[in-house]
Task: inverse folding
């Protein structure tokens, strides 16, 4: 697809350390993989769910495709960098097996960058060479990749757990997955249709209805489900009652309320002061808890995220690592 996508964009992504995999996928080193290897500071998903940051691959099968153009998104969107393309265009898909192999190779290349690093934890680096988890969440909407269920299956066959993050605008793609992810996330980043159109800027008019359809089928998934909210100060932190109604419909296993981070291409659309601090996120979560009956069960101050659930503790996917 490089012949369909502007070389300027591909170059910009490579400069931002995206490792291209085939025609439409990519792996990028997560900040927390580095923090875990060098400073023994894992991500909040390790704290909450036992996903080891140093054994996690952050990837996307939909590098150039999404059904929304969220204000807060860190990805390069059509129109950024004076480059435009059709983000909903149906692409020729690479086979799932090839993507899986390409991702493992890209992760290996990322890790080889630590070989001469005297600050790295060598025990962890050795473990990192055997990844245990895939975050299908880097950028873009993964349900726009047709054989997504197969991709999940080939990762699972390699004994990798998967967390899939979707914007929920393709309910039929999610309900037809021939393999469920280990944990399914759907982003709900606006309380009602009016705000949704302004903040998430969908590419098609019925997207809000589609998102609501996804929330209605959420209880039918066997895997744990998460409603993920990216909170942007002065943009989507009001109308908590409306959010509570959406939560009621979806009845997720968890809610993650998380602050927007001023990084990547989002800096072209939002100012630094759009990031709420942890106190604001916590206050939002408290109000949501009052309205939904969910309880706050954990939080991460540095990632400005609060976890709510009806469970007392989250289910963990600890994967055999002996290290924190
Ligand atoms: S789970 Fe997410 S935040 Fe944690 S290391 Fe993987 S990609 Fe990074
Ligand atoms: S749905 Fe996700 S990838 Fe798409 S624009 Fe929004 S934040 Fe970015």
Result:
């Amino acid at each position: 697809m490089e012949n369909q996508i502007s070389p300027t964009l591909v170059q910009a992504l490579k400069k931002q350390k995206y490792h291209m995999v085939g025609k439409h996928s990519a792996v990028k080193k997560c900040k927390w993989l580095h923090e875990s290897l060098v400073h023994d500071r894992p991500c909040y998903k390790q704290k909450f769910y036992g996903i080891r940051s140093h054994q996690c691959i952050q990837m996307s099968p939909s590098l150039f495709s999404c059904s929304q153009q969220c204000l807060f998104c860190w990805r390069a969107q059509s129109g950024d960098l004076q480059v435009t393309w059709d983000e909903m265009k149906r692409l020729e898909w690479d086979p799932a097996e090839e993507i899986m192999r390409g991702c493992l190779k890209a992760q290996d290349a990322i890790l080889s960058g630590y070989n001469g690093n005297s600050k790295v934890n060598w025990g962890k680096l050795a473990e990192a060479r055997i990844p245990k988890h895939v975050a299908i969440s880097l950028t873009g909407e993964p349900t726009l990749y047709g054989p997504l269920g197969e991709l999940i299956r080939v990762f699972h066959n390699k004994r990798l757990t998967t967390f899939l993050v979707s914007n929920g605008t393709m309910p039929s793609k999610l309900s037809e997955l021939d393999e469920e992810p280990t944990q399914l996330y759907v982003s709900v980043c606006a309380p009602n249709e009016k705000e949704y159109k302004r903040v998430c800027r969908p590419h098609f008019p019925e997207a809000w209805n589609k998102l609501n359809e996804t929330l209605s089928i959420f209880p039918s998934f066997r895997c744990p489900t998460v409603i993920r909210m990216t909170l942007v100060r002065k943009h989507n932190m009001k109308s908590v009652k409306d959010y509570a109604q959406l939560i009621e419909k979806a009845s997720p296993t968890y809610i993650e309320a998380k602050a927007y981070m001023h990084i990547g291409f989002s800096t072209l659309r939002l100012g630094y002061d759009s990031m709420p601090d942890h106190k604001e996120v916590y206050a939002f979560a408290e109000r949501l808890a009052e309205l939904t009956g969910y309880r706050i069960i954990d939080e991460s101050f540095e990632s400005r995220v609060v976890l709510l659930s009806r469970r007392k503790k989250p289910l963990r996917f600890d994967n055999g690592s002996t290290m924190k």
User: Anything to note?
Assistant: The CA atoms of residues 49 and 315 lie 6 Å apart. The first helix runs from residue 7 to 15. The chain has eleven helices and eleven strands. The pocket of iron/sulfur cluster (ligand 1) is lined by residues 30, 32-33, 43, 45, 51, 53, 56, 58, 135 (CB under 6 Å).
